[in-house]
Amino acid sequence: HCCSGNESLEGRFSFSLSTFDPSGKIGQVDRALIASSLGTPILAVIKNDRILLSAPQTLPSPLMEDDGTSRFAAVTPHIAVGHSGISADGRVLVAAAQQLAVEHAYTYDENIPIELFLEEMSLLYQEYTMTPGVRPFGAILLVAHTPREGRPQLFRLDPSGSVTSYDENIAIVNGKFTSNRGELEASMEELSRI
Fold it and tell me: For residue 187, what pLDDT is reported?
């Protein structure tokens, strides 16, 4: 049976997790982005030479139990990460980030530079989008960097492996606050000026 011109071609490209569809997308990455967007919101505010990280401690359903997953972890004295999305994937990413930092410090006797850290973590994410038999990570990482000199920085790593730098003093990961986002950003901006 041959497909007519009006039928979807999606099924033809679903035989492999790493096959691009005609629009240039990988379906698994789109689904990982959706899964990661359903996680706990993470907020970050740059205040002088520090970064404040926060996440609400509410569960989306009374039928869920807290799994005890910490949303934030130190990677080096100058880099911290927060994860949102699928908690198990977040734990794997945090462990990989910490291992990357420890191995770099052991090998080069210095903390890992932020550029190298972001590149290596991005490559890990991207590897999971193209490796047969595995799925992309369903978690987003918010990376907070407080350099010895200069302005603190905020970055976001998403399931496709792309890195986004925040130019503002505020970063909000995930859309649970979308309806009040303007009000929340105004409050966070006010907090960052205090």
Answer: 61
Question: For residue 106, what pLDDT is reported?
Answer: 97
pTM over 0.90: no
Cross-strand partners of 53: 44
Q: Which of the four pLDDT bands, split at 50, 70 and 90, describes residue 76?
A: very high
